[in-house]
Design goal:
This protein is an all-alpha fold. The protein has one domain: Amino acid/polyamine transporter I, CATH 1.20.1740.10. The protein contains 20 helices and 2 strands. It has a two-stranded antiparallel sheet with strand order 1-2. Bound molecules: arginine (ARG). Arginine binds next to helix 3, helix 7, helix 10 and helix 14. It is found in: Apical cell membrane. InterPro entries: AA/rel_permease1, AminoAcid_Transporter. GO terms for molecular function: L-amino acid transmembrane transporter activity. Pfam families: AA_permease_2.
């Protein structure tokens, strides 16, 4: 009973949810649209610094694409085997039980989703400000203020209406593809003119250490993050056992190809040193190649990043909503606005954490922190797949990957998490681990033993009145 009422509660999406409307084309679009965001416009310089040569960084770009593809194929098995929403949350629940599943929802609502939002909004701000400040590096405080402004605007859009959020998403996805095409065509034109000098001698430079390679992967993998996004909407996919793996097999190689071509384009227009020095590579690229139309570049990148941030908050709102409905977060976070039907408390909560991250973090540090934490859970999902092959051998598996794939991805994720700790121990990694395990302090009393402190009822009531939100079920009783 409760479930069906809740479906009505988030009407516009969940009505769609039941109709299986995502075919092959939309599946590919969902993957490509989420993956291409800020990374390809900010990460190339960072990757070059960490690897020390054009050749190694190019190989890492391709390797990140391959790793994302293998990870996503393993997720296709998980997603067609357990079709309920919540992706990792549902798989951990099946394979390891409620405590690890809780830790996942704890970390993703408090850290992973807000840090995605913070990184993308900071990249948005960097490009928006760079368009106006050409003489010197843009002041950090201005960049941060613009990033905060972006968070507020996206929060407003998503609290205002679900349809407005979706419309922003579609328009901005189209703009992102235009940005990608401009860079690729501009680069091709430069290459035809014979500007190939930065692509020769690609491997001259120092050999990077294993830890540096792992952190270079973090930078690259950020640009590919979102490869598991279709798993969050498995229930909406038509014929998922065919279309989920197919969308993955088309979408991820397509993004890899775009990223490879964009990297070549950047190098056709500037030297590796210029690329490293540039705060916003795509702007430098536009200034070199587009002449009077150079303004097109920062404009399309800001539009692309704004769209990604919007999609990320949209998804984050749903995650918060689902996790608190299962009793894994405060009740108030699952409430919806009484007239607008948007999960406003969850969205505001995420935006506040993202805003704090914008104030105290930098793009580079947030990306490292994000990738380190995210790959612990991606590795966990691989382990869940392997464990379930033994513990649930008879579960129907409409799509089955060769077991070597999750094993390889698991080994690589262990390397990605452990290598930077050993190579350059940083206190942030320890904080991240303590934070993940710290979730257990809340899990035992509040989830396992179901205790609710008395004052929580008052807090819930206060926010209900302030935000005009109600539990979804009460609206339809
Ligand atoms: N790959 C995207 C970028 O380069 C970030 C995607 C964030 N992840 C997500 N699931 N929304 O900006």
């Amino acid at each position: 009973m409760r479930k069906s009422l809740e479906r009505k509660g988030s009407a516009p999406n969940d009505a769609v949810h039941l109709q299986r409307r995502v075919g092959l084309f939309s599946g590919v679009a969902l993957i490509v649209g989420t993956m291409i965001g800020s990374g390809i416009f900010v990460s190339p310089s960072g990757l070059l610094v960490r690897t020390g040569s054009v050749g190694v960084s190019f190989i890492i770009w391709l390797a990140c694409g391959l790793l994302s593809l293998l990870g996503a194929l393993a997720y296709a098995e998980l997603g067609t085997m357990n079709t309920s929403s919540g992706a990792e949350w549902a798989y951990f629940m099946d394979a390891f039980g409620p405590a690890p599943a809780f830790l996942f929802s704890w970390v993703s609502t408090l850290v992973l989703k807000p840090s995605q939002m913070a990184i993308i909004c900071l990249s948005f701000a960097q490009y928006a400000v760079e368009a106006f400040v050409t003489e010197c590096d843009p002041p950090t405080s201005v960049v941060k203020m613009v990033a905060l402004l972006a968070i507020v605007m996206i929060l407003f859009v998503n609290c205002y209406s679900v349809n407005l959020g979706m419309a922003v998403q579609n328009i901005f996805t189209a703009a992102k593809l235009v940005a990608v095409l401009i860079v690729i065509c501009g680069g091709a034109w430069k290459l035809f003119q014979g500007n190939t000098q930065h692509l020769s001698n690609a491997f001259s430079g120092d050999t990077p250490t294993l830890g540096a390679v792992a952190t270079a992967f973090y930078t690259g993998l950020w640009a590919y993050d979102g490869w598991n996004n279709l798993n969050y909407v498995t229930e909406e996919i038509k014929n998922p056992s065919k279309n989920l793996p197919r969308s993955i097999m088309i979408g991820i190689p397509l993004v890899t190809l775009c990223y490879a071509l964009i990297n070549i384009s950047y190098l056709a227009a500037m030297s590796p040193t210029e690329m490293i020095d540039s705060e916003a590579v795509a702007v430098t690229f536009g200034n070199r190649i587009l002449g009077a139309l150079a303004w097109l570049m920062p404009l399309s990148v800001t539009v692309s990043t704004f769209g990604s941030a919007n999609g990320t908050l949209f998804a984050a709102g749903r995650l918060c909503f689902a996790a608190s409905r299962e009793g894994h977060l405060m009740d108030i976070l699952s409430y919806v606005h009484v007239r607008r039907l948007t999960p406003a408390p969850g969205l505001i909560f995420h935006s506040l954490i993202a805003a704090a991250m914008v104030l105290y973090g930098t793009i580079g540090s947030l990306i490292d922190f994000f990738s380190f934490t995210a790959w612990i859970f991606y590795g966990g999902a691989m382990l869940a797949l392997i464990v379930m092959r033994f513990t649930k051998p008879n579960y129907p598996r409409p799509y089955k990957v060769p077991i070597i794939i999750p094993v390889v991805v698991l080994v690589i994720s262990i390397y990605l998490v452990v290598a930077p700790i050993i190579d350059t121990p940083r206190i942030e990694y320890l904080y991240a681990l303590l934070f993940i395990l710290g979730g257990l302090i809340f899990y035992v009393p509040f989830v396992k033993l179901g205790m609710t402190p008395r004052f929580m009822n008052k807090v819930t009531l206060f926010f209900q009145l302030l935000l005009e939100v109600v539990p979804t079920s009460s609206m339809f009783e």
